[in-house]
Every structure is written in C-alpha cells, then in structure tokens.
Queue: 3 jobs
Job 1
Amino acid sequence: MAILVQKFGGTSVADAEKIRRAAGRVIEAVKKGYQVVVVASARGHQTDELIADALELNPNPSKREMDQLLSTGEQQTVSLFAMALHAMGYDAISFTGGQIRMLTDGVYTKARIMSIDASRIHKQLDSGKIVTVAGFQGIDENENITTLGRGGSDTTAVAIAAALKAEECEIYTDVDGVYTTDPRIFKKAAKMKQISYDEMLELASLGAGVMHSRSIEFGKKYNVKIHVRSSSEQTEGTIITHEVPQMEGVVVSGATIQKDMAKITLIGVDNKPGNAAKIFAHLARAKVVVNDIIQTEVSGAKANLSFTIGISDLPTAKEAVEEIKKEVGCEKVLARDDIAEISAVGVGMRNHYGVAEKLFGSLANAKINIDAITTSEIRISCIVDKKDAERGLEAVCTAFELDKPAEKRGKTK
Amino acid sequence: MAILVQKFGGTSVADAEKIRRAAGRVIEAVKKGYQVVVVASARGHQTDELIADALELNPNPSKREMDQLLSTGEQQTVSLFAMALHAMGYDAISFTGGQIRMLTDGVYTKARIMSIDASRIHKQLDSGKIVTVAGFQGIDENENITTLGRGGSDTTAVAIAAALKAEECEIYTDVDGVYTTDPRIFKKAAKMKQISYDEMLELASLGAGVMHSRSIEFGKKYNVKIHVRSSSEQTEGTIITHEVPQMEGVVVSGATIQKDMAKITLIGVDNKPGNAAKIFAHLARAKVVVNDIIQTEVSGAKANLSFTIGISDLPTAKEAVEEIKKEVGCEKVLARDDIAEISAVGVGMRNHYGVAEKLFGSLANAKINIDAITTSEIRISCIVDKKDAERGLEAVCTAFELDKPAEKRGKTK
C-alpha cells in the first residue's frame, strides 16, 4: 500500500474545529487507499506561550530544558489529533519523536536527524492505524529530548516520508502553494505547478517563507516528492521535486524581494592573500551571518569589498568592522540599511543567454539604480534602494511574465 | 550524602512566582547538605484544560491518548522548575517519567509502578545537580506513556524516595499537615505531629483528602518516611511513618466524616452459602465499588445485608439489585442516600477497652441515632442521618479530645 505523509502546521490545528478539518483531509486520503502518517506542529500560539512562561522564570533558559518544555506542544496536538480521528470512526495512534526513535545529534534547539525507526510506524500502519507523529522533536542517544529548530515539523515530515519511502509528503499550510513571487507585492503572481528543489532552496533562503530550507535539502537528498498545499481549500498546490525536462524551458521560475538587510562596504582594502579570510573570521567570531559577498578590484593593489547581512546584525557587524580596520586596514567603511535585494531564480537560467540583460533592463526602464549585483548558477540578485524595491520587483515579474503559469509564457509576446 | 525528595502539587507550582517559591524550598534543603529530587505536578488548572480540549474532540477519548496528552502538563512544570533553579544559581536537570525509566504496567490512566532506574537519578545527583522529575507518569514496556491516576504525583514521589533510599519524602501541599479531623467542620481540630501509615490509610480512604491511599501504601511497603507540610508556611507538618511506641498511648488519632455515600439494604435474604458471593459478583459486574458490608442474621434462615457505596453509583447499584433479587431472592430492598458515616481511627484502639462505648455514648448524648455500625482493627464507623453528621463529628471529636495535640490528652479531665 502506498504511504502518504501529511504535515499540518500550527495554524492548521489551532483549535478543535481546525483539527477536525485536518482529520477530514487524512480520512480522504485513507479512503483513496493510502496508509497515512500525520505530522503536526504545536497548536496556534502554544509554543509562544511556553516560551513566555520560560522567559518569565529565566531570561536565558537552558537549551536542554527549552527542548524538554517546547516538545510538549506537538505531543499535545498529536494525541488530540488521534482522539479526533477516533471520534470520526478511524483507528489512530500518536507518537512522540522519542517513541518512533527519531534519533538526532545532541545539539539542543537545532538538532539534526540521524535516523528513524521506520519499523515502529510500519507496524502500526500495517495494523490499519493512522499514525500521528509529533513534529519538530527527537531524542539524542541519551534519551534527552531535542528539537529541530525553525521549520522543524516540515523536516520531521520529509524525514519520515524518506524513511517510509512515502509516495508523497503533503505540507498543509495557510497558502495554497508556491507563487512566482510574493502576491502581497505583485498581485498578479501565478501559482507554480512544480518547482525544483534547487529553485525552492534559493527562494526559501531568500525569504519566500513557505518552507524552511532544511526540509527542502532533506527532500532533495532523499528524493521526497513534496506537495505544498492549502489546509483550507481543496486545490492542488505546488510540487517540489527534482528537475523535470519541461522545467528547462522556463528561464525564470520566481522572483523574490528581501528587505530586512544591510550592506557594509570596505573601500580600499589591501588586495593581498589572507585579508578576506581575516575579515570574515572577525565577523564569524561576532556571530554575524553573512549573506552575499561582492568584491571588486579597484586597482592592482586595492579592492572594494561589500557584504550583506541581516539588518539586526548591523550594530554587531559595525563593531567587528572596527576591529577589521585595525587588523587589515582599509580607506573607508560604508554601511547602508536602506537597501533591498531583488532576485530572479530559475534552473533554466544556466542554459539561457540574455537573462541578466533582461533583468537589468527591466530595472533600468523603471529608472531604478542597481547598487550591487551578485549571481549563482540559478539566481541573479540586484541590490537596490529600499524605496524602489517593490516597484523593481514588479518590473522584473512583468519582464519574465511571472503573472502567467509557466507553460503559457512567451506565447503572447 | 542524604537524599531528600520534595513533591509540589499543582497549586504550589501554579505560576512563575509559586515555582520560584517552591525552588526556594529546594535550595534551603540543598544548603542543609541534601541531594534533592523534586517531583512536580502539572501547573494549576493545566490538566483540567487539557481534559476539556480532549472532550471537545472526543466525548470518550482513548485512555492511551489521554495519558499521552496529560503527561505533558508535568513535563512542562519540571522543565520550567529546572529553569527557575538555574536562574537562582543552582544546577538542575529535568526528567520525564520515561527518561528515568519509571516502568509501569500497561493500564492507561491508572498504571501501577513496576520499577525505577535509580542509577539515572543518582548519576545526576552525584554530579551536583538538583533533579526535577515529572510526577504522575511512567512508560510501559513498549514505551507507551502511562499515568498513575489520582494522587499519582504523590505516588511518584514516594516511589522515587523508596528507590533512592531517601531520608524523607516531603509532600508540599496547601494544608500544613494532617489534622485530627476536618478543620472546616470542627474548628478546634489539632494538627498531628505524626501518624502511622495504617491510620493514614484509614483516614485517606475515608476521605481526609490530604494524600491518596496508594502513595501511603507505597510508603508503608517500602518504609518511606513521608512529611506532609505547607508550601506557603515555614512550619513543621505531619510525619507519616511506622508505628512508634508512644503512638499506642493515643487511643483515637483522628475522626472523619464521609457524606457522598448511599446505603442499600436487602431485607430477608436466604442465608445460605454462596448468596453473598452472588450478590457482590452482580455489583462488581456493574462496576459498583462497595465500601462497607454489614450483615446481620435475623433468623436461622434469613439475614439482612447492607452495603455502602458512593452516591454516584446508586442508580447503577439499584439496577444491579433488581438482578440480584431475581437470582438470590429477598423480601425487600431499602435504599438511602440521606446518610453519612462518622469514623474514629487510631492504632491505640486495638489495645484499649471502652472506645466503642465512648463513641456511641457521645452520639447518644447528642441525641443522634446510629443506623449501622462497622469496625476494623483500628477504626469504628457509625452510619447516621446526613443532617446529624457534622454535629455528630463534633461530639466524637470532643469526646476523644481531638482539639488537643496527642501528648496533652487525658490530662485535664
């Protein structure tokens, strides 16, 4: 029998009515002949409330104890979910992460999954039960409870789908799929039928926010077909999978905007071996996460070096840069927090000419100045003034016809 | 190093301030040189809220899933308790029932403890940590979570004290000890310095309500000194222990009243072998818990048989009695729900004459009619009209000087 993993996030199980609705989704799949494993998050704001309870007692709580505390939220959801299924006439059994031996490393609050005992789940499925599993959590080899960090329940779902060789892993969420861009900014954004893991990873890391990048990496590694869909509407969502041939015809799949960022530029750094390493060692020690790095040579001996960071890291980064100036030496430091990054992503990009030209041209036509440019194999990003960001995204989306489904692009022009 | 187990009930850990106060008690014990194990219940009304959540989804929830759900309440408390201790500068670590391998049988919602892995707790205590353990819960041999039923956290505490050979098991509660009788009825009730397990068992089963009888049975079996004391006041409470010589001088230690009961009397039952067994088999099948049984022979061939039950079981018991009438035959059935039972309890009773006389005399002087009488080795109980119950208890308490500490009785008369 084919196995289906269905993951429901916190908003999809926030109250009894929503749990019943989610249970209805599960029963639909059972009626289609699937063995179903449900992975659920903590209900609504439960996790936030537990964090507040903890901080009231200790402003700097132990990570082990936080995991021990927060894991209860998912445990509650899955037992309640099983009860709801019982009430609807279906047999079900709930498990904590520990009970299915979801073994992780011992890094509390951001543990990594090492193995899952699939036999415990198979045994229950084969006895006719629906299995509900607490997301976000595991245990280390000493039976301490660990949690997987942000997006952890997605990772649990994808990992279980991999371990059970499930046909598909459905991620139920409050959006009905992955869009070509943020529909709040570009109202005509189109829903994608499918997207490759690599594109989704670029979009996730750039802030598309539908799924956390770790679960997509997991899906890519273990070849899990992920289906992002709406928990409230009966529509097909977006399939995240390996590249399929028709994808290559699509040059740009999606575009994103990232606003909460800042850029620091070191002007006139001595361009000698080891200096870049020293600079980023300073930033790493200060625990500043660096996004993009852009270096340009201004003369044989000097270079300008820019890097982008989260805006909240800017004060720390500025302090680190003072140290860097002392050690490495540079003529001037510029910091900007009034910028945003517009990116176009697409696996088709690597086989097509003219993508960069079209992107830069669309921004130029809109009279938007490009401050800096950085690229990867399937992405081109431009840093622009924050005030121009939304207008810029619209220009890019229009240029690449992101208001149309992929199969209809390039046909009306 | 001597080990102390401290148990805090739900009201003693209801909010951050109360958890901090409880943590203060723990730290006092640590400063006295004890290794301390904390056992805690779910905070305030958490368990009630979770039960309401469950019933909203399923009016008849699976017992396994209820245990999975409710065990989270205690898990939250002990992780928060550990965080509070950290904030106060003490090292601590929390454990679920499963993490200390509190193995139980597989009877969900009222499991019985089979074993505890004391080495896991010793290891942490010996490394200088305070250990906080979730009360009320364990796991069965298949790692399903079980709960111990009413008074379960007391049982957890006493069982851990037994397994660790603790010097004492302190039960912190909202009363400051065990009283000779209910102070809400007999205002002059005196606090007992000590009481034997057997007396406490009679008082607990008669509804004194301070501790559940299972934990006292556990204490008796494994010789755990139990100290019932106030979580808000710095006073000595009541020690529950084996009989000590001076206890024999005390004839009656305490008196109780039980109101939520009913009595059924079968008049003119054929007095032949096997009839009593048939009667109580019917009641057992109907899941009626029978308290006292009183049989009197009215002639060579006929007997009257009474039994008392909880008042909520009366409708079910009446139905069962109809079946009994058909099978066993009896002349008449009487049912009363307007009764109460007054009991005097004391280990000294068995070596003293005149206790019954004094008890009956005190009720007679108060012009209270005795409907029925039943006794055990350390208890005499009288069934009276419910309207007379409180007045009767006062008469009994006055007769046995239960307004004075045990050592002062019989000295002023």
Note: The longest helix of chain A spans residues 63-87.
Job 2
Amino acid sequence: MKNNLRLETITLGDELLLGLRENSHLTYLGGCLARYGLTMRRNIVIRDDEDEIERAFLDAWNNADILITTGGLGPTVDDITRETIARVLGLNLVHDTSVEEAIRARFAKFERPVTDNNFRQAKVIEGFEALPNSYGTAPGLWFEKDGKRLIMLPGPPMELYPMFERQVLPRLMAEGLIDEKQAYLQLRTCGAGESSLETRLKPLFDSYGNRLSVAYCAHDGMVDVRLSGGSENPLEWSKIQTLGEICQEVIGDDFVTFGDESLAFLLLNHLRGLGKHLAVAESCTGGLLSNAFTDVPGASKVFVGGAVTYNNQAKVEILDVPDVIIQQHGSVSAECAAAMATGAAEKFSADYAISVTGFAGPDGGTPENPVGTVYLGYHSPLGVWSHRLVYPGNRQAVKSRAVYAALDWMRRKLKKYEVEDVLESMTC
Amino acid sequence: MKNNLRLETITLGDELLLGLRENSHLTYLGGCLARYGLTMRRNIVIRDDEDEIERAFLDAWNNADILITTGGLGPTVDDITRETIARVLGLNLVHDTSVEEAIRARFAKFERPVTDNNFRQAKVIEGFEALPNSYGTAPGLWFEKDGKRLIMLPGPPMELYPMFERQVLPRLMAEGLIDEKQAYLQLRTCGAGESSLETRLKPLFDSYGNRLSVAYCAHDGMVDVRLSGGSENPLEWSKIQTLGEICQEVIGDDFVTFGDESLAFLLLNHLRGLGKHLAVAESCTGGLLSNAFTDVPGASKVFVGGAVTYNNQAKVEILDVPDVIIQQHGSVSAECAAAMATGAAEKFSADYAISVTGFAGPDGGTPENPVGTVYLGYHSPLGVWSHRLVYPGNRQAVKSRAVYAALDWMRRKLKKYEVEDVLESMTC
C-alpha cells in the first residue's frame, strides 16, 4: 500500500532558484522517507510568489496523497505560503494566541525585542493544526481532507529537521503511512561506473522479471545498488538476501558494504576494531579529507589529527618531508606523497596515515603532471605505498574526487593486507 | 523583456528524491542564469519514470518559454528521458552516426571496450540538434518550436557544466535571451538575521514603491540583499547605487561587501594585499575551516597550511600548546584556542592564524561548556584574542556554523585593526 502512496513536496525559496543555496530540504526529506519505505515522487522548487504557489499547490494537491511544503512561513514580506494556500483553499486565517505566546516567550528567552512582523506567524489557517516549533517562531501546520494530508513546515533546517523527526515521522508511522523497517537491500560499491555495474549484474536479475526491482544510485564517488520486491508477486526477502550475496561476489573488490555507511565511517570502524589510530596529511584537498573523517560521530576515538601542508615549507617543517625529495621530485610526486604519509603517522603518533598531494587548479601543473594530477600516499604498519591518479574538472571537483579516491584506495589496501598479516609481520 | 521570459527546469534522478545526492544542477544553473539577469521560475525533480516525465514535461512545455531538462540521457535502462519526450512530442528517434563515432572514439581513448547499451545514446530525436559532449558519451539536445526552446542536457556535472557554459549560455546570449551584464546590486551581510535586516532597511525603501525590487537571500551564514529596478518605471542604476551606499551605512559592521565574493576569498585577498600569510588550527571543525580557504583559487599565495589537532596530544606536539593549559582549562577553552592560534602561526611561519576548538557532539561537553560550545582564537601581529560561542544543532551544523563564525569574526577583527595600526605597533 505504501508504495502506491504518492508523496510530493513543494520547496519555497528564491535563494534556491538563484543558485545561492543547495536544496537540503529535498535531500533530507527524501532520505528520511526512503528509509521508511516511502519514495518521494517529485519535488518542486518555486519562488515566494503568489501565482507560482497557487499553480504548484493546485497541481500537487490534486495529484498527491501527502503534500509537504517547506519554507515561506517566516516573518518577512516575501513569506506568503500560509496566506496563499488559505486563499486557494477558500479558508480564513485565525489568530492563535498560544502561538503568539510561544513567539513572545522565545524572544524573551534570548532577551531580544519582538518586531511586529513576527506576529504574522501566529496566524493559523482555520481547520489546520499548529505544530509547535521548538527552535524558531513559525509553527508547522497539519491538515487532513478526503484522506489527503497537507503538512506545512518551516524552512530553516534547524527548525525543519527536529519538527519532521519528532512530530511528522512518528505521526505518519502511527497512521501506517510509512514503514518501520528498512524497505530494500542496498549494496554499496566503489570503483565501477553505473553502466559497467549494470552490465555485470543484469544477467543475475533477468530471470526474475517484474518480481524484482533494481535501482542504481551514484553519489559521493560510489554507486549503490538497491534490490527490493517488484510490482508483481514480489520476491521474498530471504531470496533478495541470497541474491544480494551473489551480487557481492560478482562485484568483487568494488563491493564496499551492505547498507548506507560512508567509506570514512567504515575505515574508522575497521581501525577501531584493530585498536589503531589514523592521521591525515593533505595538500591539494586542503582539509576536505580530514573533514570526511571528522564528519563521523565518535571519529576522535581513531582519528588523531591531520596536517594541511599547503606550501613546501609546511611539508618540511610540520611533516618532516625531506627537503631533498621536494627538490628532486617536486611536491606533487609519489615520493612526496609517501613521505607525507609517513611524516603524518610519526608526528601525530598514529599507526596508519593517508596523504594527498596534487594540482587542484586552475593554476599549477607541469607537462608530466597537469592540473588534475593527484598522488596518494598510504602508511601502515606493513609499509608505505603511493598511487597516481588524474582527474579532469574544476578545483572543487578535483578536491572531492581525490578525497573519494583516497578513501577507496585505503579501503582496498586494508582489505588486501588483513590484520593477520599485520600481526605476523610485527612478530617476524 | 528577459524578466518576462519563463525558464523552467526538470531534473531527472531517483537519487535526488532518495536523498542520496544534493541537487547541484539547480544550484549551478540557477546561479549561472541569475548572473545574466534571468531568474529560473521553477525546478521540478522527478524519477526516471515514463508517467512522471510525461506529466512534468507537458506541464512545463505548455507554460515555459525555455525548458531545460538535465539527466536521464545515459546508457542504462532507467535513462528514458530521450525516448519519453520523443513519444510525447510524436517524434521519431534517428540514429546519428557522428554521435556513434564520438562514443567509439571516447572509449578507444580510454582503452575500454564499448558496451552495447552505450549506443542508445547515439539516438537523436528528429528535428533536434545534437550538442557534442566533450567529457562523456551522451550528447545534449537543442530544439526550437513556436518561439519556445527545449534544451536537454546530460546529468553528470562534469559533462553538464562545460556543455552549459560553452554551448548553451553563449547561444542564449547571442539570441538576446539573457543579459551580458550583472542585473542587480548585491549587498552581502553577515551577523544579522533576515528579519532584523528587513526591519532596519525597510524605511529606506518605502518611498520607492514598485520602482524598486528588494530580495533577501540567506545562505552560508550570510544574508544577501539584492536591489534592482522594479516593475513600474524602474529606478535608474545610478540611484540604485546611491541607495546601496546608504544601505551600507545603515548595515554598519554587518556589511561585508558589494558582490558575491565569499568571506574566505575576502580574507585571503585582504591579507594578500598586506603581503601576509595565514595558518589555521582546528579541532571540532575537523578540516572544514582549512577547506573553506583552500576552495578559493590561488589560496596558496596566502594560506600556508592548517593543523587538525583532534586529540590533546596533537595539540601539544603539533601546535606547541602548553600541556598545563589543557590540564588547567581543558582543550575547549579560551586559553587553548588562543594557544592553538599562536602555535599555528609559529609552526607554519604565518603572520595571522585562526583557531577553532569545541564540542561538535553528539558526545562530549561539560556542564559549563555543553555540546555546541565553540571557542575561536585569533593571532595577529597586534596580539591574540579568543571568543566564545554556543550553537545548537547536530554535528554537521555545529561544524559549519563554527566555520562561518570564525570567518566573520576574523573579518571584524581585521576591519577593526587596520594595517596602519599594525605597522605603527611594530615600529613602537
């Protein structure tokens, strides 16, 4: 039943259409809902404009079972979502004294005077239920009619996310509109493109026809393969699991994990199991690799630190890279990458270290190592390796691709040389 | 005329609705078009599904003057945009041998065998013009009918962006559909919220009525105010500029710049003008502050490096933070932040350094310094300061807010103590 439910979202915000901000509402809501078995069917981004809101709202309200709007509930003149939807539905706005009190209390708490425009947020559409906002002044709104649900939520993520998790999700769950367990089997892969993966896996799926549903999702340098029951006589969960294991074998070294854990999480978790510590040394990625590790909650149990050594002097002084290596091979070289990794391990007292050095552009580069050339270094108790890559693209693209490549390369190295080898080599 | 042109976009991709990837197409295209005076009116994200594509395409094609689709042109079975739109328009697909040759050439260049599914990309809708793809196999498509334009572009950013910049933008410009100069005056601010800013500025705008258009856009810890000519008898550009200068005075210390440069760029540029160098020391932000600086092209002329000292030992060994400071005040303290900044300046041989230490959560924190507490440190030739902040929110939110706060605090410090003061203090 859930898979037939049609959930659409309308995101309000000029700044998204002007390219000033990423549409994090879509990413957040889409991810939350998918985990509970409900796939968002479409998302529309429109400006805070009456005509735009009316057209998008009517279209979505006519087609969807659940419609979620985000944004446009705030105090400024361009926040007109509440007023416009009330008008389109032919409903009045009524002043809600409990919301007014919550607004006054919030401003009092932060010892700031309430500007008048804030009280517009105390207007609630008649027949709508106000959802209290613990982190801001604009309440959410919940409305049911003819079996459809309209849920209007504030735009600031710090207000939207807690309201969605604590008030909306539990209610959708209680009403049986979303699932309580994971709805698909996910194989996470790294190293193979979508089309090569599809070519390798397709023969395994062909015999199941409509009994099996397969989706490929590329993101963050990885490709996820999601297996779930199809539209007709859906394949049983146990068979999907068996099929997943066969896929894992076919995917081979490009298989990362079942589930949705990040490469950085898996690496830290692996090292934590070994009781080891990790350090990072970066040049062209400029902090982005350390940032990937420190995005993982609890990273501090394994990740001890990183050095962003952007110029040669920093490489020599902070990481003890021998000056002669830079003189002879340059700072973008296999030799320098290896020395950076070893230096980071020693200076941070870590067992493992990973390093990146390269030309992110737009300037720099040499005939042998043009912009986009990246060397990775890996230091472990078993030895030191380096690896060369060339990525086309702009500065940010080179940075993030180099980070994904470093994480995946370390994963492969750790897999190749298992803990037993390490222990053995240390007792020899 | 351009402001009346209605441009809509359709973004294809299950992974966006599943929350696996940010909709970077929207951010990129919206930003590009806005710079040339054309505001995108709406963006729809849908799945790679025939019915979804048909409904969204018909609605957009009926309403828009220019419709851009992105994604769904690739080789895998779920890439059906080309086939679906051909069917809806009642047009045939024809094999394009020049596209086939380009696909063969690309695979040959990378010495990889062509899988058969790739040749689907050589099918072009009749009457459509193929746009060559320099970075991938799927060509773009361009179509004109009844004064409307349909532009179909590939999804991977590395293919989409160059195709849009080198083929689509110049053509829109040549046809007079977009502008060649900046279309609005932008005041970038930091430190004041949208509603407080509106309250302060509104009295300046009231007398202009519909002659002036004002938009507020909050993003990346900042709020942009955009002034442009209104819908009736638009205000002249020179008057908008004068008004912008008055706004600048009213905004005071919260004013950052005219234009759209980032805080990190402005700081690096300022220090470059002084001939000075910058280092960074971070704990809880874990590399994100260094990353903000190294996202700026040419950062290496000013930014020499950063240390991510995640545990206490790293703070002591890499940054020379005195052990007694950590013993007495803890690593999340004003004293430690100041010592980290000074240590970074000394170890990286930089004139200026900025540091961040705090509890990003979900674990950690003390009764006096709960999760979300952040201390900033600032080292300059004039002295060392520290600053305490408390931010609610999850780990990623604390990290990015701390980075914005650090950048803005350094901006204010640099503004307060100008170069003359520094020179004076050094000759005393």
Note: Residues 212 and 229 of chain A are 5 Å apart (CA to CA).
Job 3
Amino acid sequence: MRRVSLFAIATLGSMFLGQTVLANDMNIVAEPGHPSLQAFRLPDTPPAPANNAPTPARVELGKKLFFDPRLSGNGTISCATCHNPTLGWSDGLPKGIGINGSALPRATPTVINAAYNHIQMWDGRKRDLEDQAMGPMEADKEMNADIDAVIRWLNENDGYRQLFARAYPGEPIDTDTLSRAIASFERTVISKDSPFDRWSRGDRRAMTEQQVRGFRLFIGKAECVKCHSGPNFTDDGFHNVGLASFGDPEPDAGRYKQVPLRLMKGAFKTPTLRDVTRTAPYFHDGSAATLEEVVRHYNKGGEVKTNLDPNIRPLNLTDEEVADLVAFMEALTSPFIEVALPELPR
Amino acid sequence: MRRVSLFAIATLGSMFLGQTVLANDMNIVAEPGHPSLQAFRLPDTPPAPANNAPTPARVELGKKLFFDPRLSGNGTISCATCHNPTLGWSDGLPKGIGINGSALPRATPTVINAAYNHIQMWDGRKRDLEDQAMGPMEADKEMNADIDAVIRWLNENDGYRQLFARAYPGEPIDTDTLSRAIASFERTVISKDSPFDRWSRGDRRAMTEQQVRGFRLFIGKAECVKCHSGPNFTDDGFHNVGLASFGDPEPDAGRYKQVPLRLMKGAFKTPTLRDVTRTAPYFHDGSAATLEEVVRHYNKGGEVKTNLDPNIRPLNLTDEEVADLVAFMEALTSPFIEVALPELPR
C-alpha cells in the first residue's frame, strides 16, 4: 500500500518535472565548455534499485534473456525482436508488430537510455525497467508467453539455472529475478558520448556551426528544451502535442488512462532525443517519418488544437532554422552500441 | 541449357556421393593424428563462385542484409530471425515459423557450414548459397518480400547504395548482387575447430575416451559415416531414414519432388553434424528433441520401413554405445561463432 502511494506521488510529480528542469535550462549558455552545460551531462552509470546493482553476472544473464525467443509463446520473438539493436533498439516501424503479426497500438520505444527514465512507457504505466520487463512478455499480442511455463523451463534448464545462481545467489528463478536480470542488461544500453557531449565539455570542433545554431534555437526561440530538458533530453513528463491522430473518432487517450486529469488526455511521455536519428519513425503513433517532419509539426503549433499542451504554439522558424534544429539533433547521436550476440543455454 | 544439364548430372551424382566417400572412410584409422583423418579436414575457406570471392566489403554488406528486417514484407523478419546465431543459426523449433506466425512444413536448416554444401535445402532444390538467398525472402509464408520494392528501396537508400558500390563496383543493385552479398556473409559462418578436429590433428587429450569410443562406433559398427561422411559430415546425398512422419496419409515426398525416382520418395538431405549440439530439434520434421532420440531412431532401424534407404537397419547398439555416439557428436562442437550486430543504414 505504501509502495503504491509513493508511486502515485512520483507520478503526479513527474507531470510537472518539465517546469522544474526548465528553470535550470533558462540559464544555459551555448558556449563550448560552459559550466551551465553540465545540465545536459548524464551520470556515468544510470541509477539502479538497491537490490539490483548491475553486476557482470546479472548483465550477462539479462543479455541472454533479452535475446532469447524461447521466452515467447511460440518461440519466435524475443525482447530484441522489437527492441532491435540494429534499428536503434526499436523496430523502425510506425507502430509495433507483435507475435504472429499482431498490430500494436503505439510505436515501440527504444531501450537506449531507458535506464535514465524516471517513468516508463508512452503512458507512464510502468515505474522502472524492472517493472516494465514482464509487460511485453505477458501481453498476448506481444510475446504472449505462458509465464508459468517460462519460469518452469528456466528452472529446468541447466545453463539458465547456473546463470541465475551466479546472478542472484540464494534467490529463486521467478518473475522477480527474471525482470531484474533483463533490467540489468538494459542498463548497459547507454548513449552519452555524442558530438554534443564532446562540444559541451569544451571541444569546439565537435559540432558544426549549423549544429550550434540548432542548439541555440533548441534552448531559445524554438523552446524545445521546455520538454526535452536535462541530461536525457526529456522531462519524463506527458504532453498532448497536437498530433493529427488525436482528431480520430476514438483517439488514444495516452496518459489519461493512468491519470484521469483532463490535461493528460492524449498526452504521451516526452521521448529522449539521444540517438534520435536512429529511431525513426517518430511520435507515439509513428506519424512522422523524419526529424524534419517532426520539427515542421511543432513549427505550425501542432495539428489538432483540442487539449493541446499550453507550451505548443507556432514557432515561426524559417526553413533554414528547421534544418539547423535537425542538424543539432544529429549531434545527439552517440557511437553505435556494439553488441555481440550471446550464446544461449541449450 | 548447358547449365541446367550440368546441374542435373551433379544432382544425380550427389545421390551416390555417399558411396564414394564411404570407400575412403573405410580406411580410416581412429588414432589421433593419423593421416587417414585428413578425410575429415575442412578446407580453410569454403568454395565460392568465381564472380563472388568473399571480399571484406561483400561480407560487411551481406551481414547487414542478413540482419535487416526491412527486407521482409512487413519489416519484422530478417534472415537472422529464423537463422538465429544465438540458436545455432537456426530457430530451435521443430518446424519453421515464418512471417505473421505462418507454419512452415520443415525444420529450419542451419547456416553453419552451409557454405560447404554441394547442394542446398532439405530437398536439394537450390544449388548454392547465391541460388538459395532469395528463396525465403520471396516465399509468402517466410519473409514475404515484394522484391521489386526491396530492390527499389535499396537503390534509394544512401547507405546501402554506397555499400553495394564498394562490394560490387560497376554492378547494379539487383537480386543478383543482393544474393551474392548475403552468400558472402554466410561463407563466414564456419564450424571447423572442434575437439574432434584437434584430436584428428594429433591432440589426444582433445576428446574423452568415451568420445573416441563414439567415433569408433561412428565409423564402425553404427556405420553413421556411410551418409555423414567427409569433412562436413554429410554426403550431400538424400535418404529416406524411416521417420514416423513418412507414415502420414500425405507424407512429405522430399527429394522426390525434384528428382522423381522412387528411391527419392521421402528422402531428405543428410545434414552436417558439425555444431549439431546447437541445432536441436533434429530431422527435417523436427521430430527428435535430442541427439539420443536420433541415435535410438537409427538403432531400431527406423520407424516406417516403406521405401527405406537400404543403409538403414537395426544397429544393435547397447545403451552405453548410444551414449558414446552422442558424446562423439558433442566433440563436433566448435567454439561459438561470435557476431556483433551490425549498424544498419538508416
């Protein structure tokens, strides 16, 4: 009961987090190496729950589980199928496609830097990576796993039994240790060494002039930073950004399903912009194919004005400024995260 | 026309290849380092067509294509989905499952050492890796690609255009270069450094005593080597091995569909035994879950006797001998083939 209340408080708090971070960002000086740019510096390691420090044994186990299609109902689909490392740890599709070609209602969020999120999923219905891990496995249109059968199978598999014993000595193999292992691997999927990061630490050659102009627009005229704020370029808040799909006869209510406040109707979580060049198409409904389309959407102040977030308004950006903003987002691309496919227990 | 005839001759020839190799194998002396064991030594590099030497540029391109789900009809399935490196470059399923959960009629063959095959597919309907590559892509129950659209997309994609230009300078991006690139990557998926290989080169500690006993049975009493012959432990021939499924009302005719000789009814290609511990379940119909089940099937001389290959007869192996044979097959396992997932062109 206590846990639920704390979560509710955190949830309500996160809706206003954007405002808090904005206050800091207002003082940002767009000069390479300026101390104010520390506002965008990610901690070296993402936070982890006290009972799940990411030891090598946990990461190794979690990686195998992440890539193992035998955790799905028909053995064809793993976490890595939709969160595909070759496609920005997402799937390159407007909306996800689960087991047996099942159409899913929203775009697949990337795993990249999900470890830094204060709340998970487009509608924030999961607290953290541990809380999230079992969701897609159990969902009948995603991995459609028979969880009892999966847990039984893991307990009967010699290889997995040893890996769990090393990762979580003295603990049973159950949904709790399964989720914690997967979360431990996901905490290694980090983007934090982009040209922007090098520039902000003082390397003035790391960004082009156009990218610097884009950054100035980002924190200035275009006010992107109002929501895409802080080290992970997200306020972990929820906003209705006026997408055309909100004009559908039965639009996706988004965050409203979790928090029935009018402000949350059609509001979705601000995604990180780190590695955003790798995660097209964009928006929760996959309606923008390119970053230019995204910027043009904001430039006209959104499409559907009903219940629009008060921060969304026409930006009056020129074509050149639109291109500058896109160029800046390119500078948020870190080196490709190399992952060697693991050998799975037989 | 000339090409077709040569293929037909090669095809007919391959049916008797087992006999030829047997003649050599009869002289094998099961002592570590014995020159006769060179009969099992794979060449360092597998053969490649004259127009497709596996240059680094071709392998790099082919790897990206192999892992790219955007080559499928709905963007969800790549070559690597069913030929999954984490599951022995196969799928761990009794029979394949293609796009949208489509049930496929046979088990997914491994890519491991397919480069050494003289003929491809369970029924030998493809000549070589180049010939095979487009098959699953086009099949409506496998990747269900609109090939014209795929070729158009590759031609429009800057990244792929550059990769193709480096791999096949002066050649167009078409199904020919697409297949050759994928085949080039597949030629790197090689298993040839197993405990048995080290033992056969003279390292007497590389196999256990039980494994050596298993090898003696393999080339002796059990006569496995009659079909699982030569460096890749296959005669590249086709045999009806008396599986229960051949007793079905409408059994899979196998090779007979390609070569309508009675001997070929229900005959399927002898699979390699290299890395066989990684590619369960077994047989073209996935009917054996373990290698022990496979050996027990042969030990009783098959299940269905109709049109049985004349080499299949009860083996009179003791339980200990069955275990010895399985132990020998464990010794055909090479180090895990590590593959780093590639960054795909956007």
Note: Chain B has two domains: 2-42+192-330, 50-186.
